[in-house]
Amino acid sequence: MTESHVLKAPSVVAKRQRRANLRRNAFYLALIVLGLVAPFIAYPVFLMKILCFALFACAFNLLLGYAGLLSFGHAAFLATGGYTTGYLLASYPGLTPELGIIAGTLMATLLGVLFGVLSIRRQGIYFAMVTLALAQLMFFVFIQSPFTGGEDGLHGVPRGELLGFISLRSNMAMYYFVFAIFLFGYALIQRTVHSPFGQVLKAIRENEPRAISLGYNVDAYKLVAFVISAALAGLAGSTKTVVFQLASLTDAHWHMSGEVILMTLLGGVGTLLGPIMGAGLVVSLQHILSQSPLGNWVSVMLGLIFVVCVLSFRSGIVGELGAIYRKNFK
Amino acid sequence: MTMIFGVPMAVFMGQLTLGLVNGAFYALLSLGLAVIFGLLKIVNFAHGAQYMLGAFAALLGFRYLGINYWLALVLVPLVIGGLGMLVERFLLRRIAHLDHLYGLLLTFGLALIFEGTLVNLFGVSGARYATPEVLQGGLNLGFMFLPTYRAWVLVAALAMCLFTWFMIERTRLGAYLRAGTENSQLMQAFGVNVPLLITLTYGFGVGLAAFAGVLAAPLYPVSPTMGSSLLIVVFAVVVIGGMGSILGAILTGLGMGVIEGLTKVYYPEAANTVIFLVMILVLMLRPAGLFGKEA
């Protein structure tokens, strides 16, 4: 009796694993369907804003949640992507939006290499301060450069025609393009996290000296994670510029670096879905507050959420839900 | 007129003084950050907001309670420092056992709350705080005109820095603090009330920021956002100097102020960014910082 039970065990485990995979795939499928029908239910521009910030937060979370690096300067990548794309699309009318976005992403990637090389030379709290200072440097560069429009920013960036023949002027067409970009970014992060590379990142996060003693070139891993994160943040910024047809200093300000931290923290650091949920909540909150008499209190509210999250809600919404699920259903 | 590298002497000296005064603020603020970091191991992101609160407390105290500048210079650091102790006791202590990045995030949230509230109450334009009469006017030194208030700020800030150095390096309380920085658990085992020491230390660091705020009130427009941009520069100064040594923090602060002032003379476009550029240079050549011990 016991023998047959033992023999059965591997197949039971495999079955359970298969079922878990099935559940996860069904879950993702439901999310994608939700994303496809969403613009028929809600205002597409609002959804696109959420998707852009969700991608931004996911990119940030790759660094904080999986490599344990707290960057306080991610606004610099968002803004670099946005400004590059905005400037190119506004100055060269023949350029198609996808090329503009690719160029913006490449610029952000390049900046990510520079920032990464400098900032991973310091650890922990110093890393946060270095990234913040570098982003502030970029803020001043953007104010003083002629191509960013200074305090006014870039306006009237044309959305243009995707691949030269699909007009993005309608919000519906734009939405599906943004959704596709978001899925691409999310899939890339998902693959990175679950790859052997992602496992080593987690090992570094948990115990850096041990990872070094095991022979991993820790700095190289951190740098690659930093650059991927910067590139995807740039992708989010470039896309945002095409959607809203403007790029401004708001994206480069340190408040923006703080907001993306809050989105990630609120949704759940180190969870794949958390940053999306956090971005949705923060963007919705800003939207609701800006139309209420409390419009000026947005930053106070964000500050309060920060304090509450840190004091009593550290694993975020998705983290807490996951804990409840594991406690009751497993 | 005497020229220095193609610039009139008076202009050169004027910017040098301005740079030294800014440097004095960098020194005071980075010193406060270093003191707090030493024992609590957190970076106090609310430091800029607490500096701003100091300036506002001086302004409002004068406007509504008639508290004069000299009284404010003593009272405001005590009040804001006391507020800081409450923050430590009821908020920071609850997360002291966690990763220290949470302390950074919590104080960042506090900074947003302080700043946002004051923006709503007073707007962003900034108010003027009258320079006390004794310190108005200036001295003609022959080669330059030295505004008295600037000279006073320099003297007061340096005196406060030296006082802090003396407190930490030469008194019993300071010895406890240094020992606690090395190993606070062992200190606790020896019967020192470490939690109280931590509260006092945080309050002292915040008090230093508030003191700087009162000093700055007659010099710059008092506005809710005066602290945040300054704090980012101070972070760069801290990265350059490292938080390991008190004299290092003072010297780096003053030095960076002077470099910034001289950049204003010779290449004004880079005045905003020069400290960040120095930080990049230091990161490339000496990643631990000029006075840092961290490997």
Topology of this protein?
The complex is a heterodimer of chains A (330) and B (295).
Chain A: H1 2-41, H2 44-67, H3 75-91, H4 97-119, H5 124-144, E1 161-162, E2 166-167, H6 171-194, H7 196-206, H8 208-213, H9 218-244, H10 254-267, H11 274-290, H12 298-312, H13 316-329
Antiparallel strand pairs in A: 1-2
Chain B: E1 3-4, E2 7-8, H1 9-40, H2 47-65, H3 69-90, H4 101-122, E3 138-140, E4 145-147, H5 148-170, H6 172-182, H7 184-189, H8 194-216, H9 226-241, H10 246-266, H11 274-285
Antiparallel strand pairs in B: 1-2, 3-4
Count all strands of chain B and give the number. 4
Instruction: Please give the share of residues in helix of chain A.
Output: over 70%
Low-confidence segments of chain B:
none
Can you write the helix and strand succession of chain B as a string? EEHHHHEEHHHHHHH
Helix content, binned percent of chain B: over 70%
Largest sheet of chain B: 2 strands, antiparallel
Verbal overview:
The complex is a heterodimer of chains A (330) and B (295). By secondary structure, chain A is mainly α. Chain A has one domain: ABC transporter involved in vitamin B12 uptake, BtuC (Orthogonal Bundle). Helix content of chain A is 77%, strand content 1%. Chain A has 13 helices and two strands, in the order αααααββαααααααα. In chain A, a hairpin with a 3-residue loop joins strand 1 and strand 2. In chain A, helix 6 packs antiparallel against helix 9. Chain A starts with a helix and ends with a helix. The model of chain A has no long low-confidence stretch (mean pLDDT 89). Chain B has 295 residues and is mainly alpha-helical. The radius of gyration of chain B is 19 Å and the shape is globular.
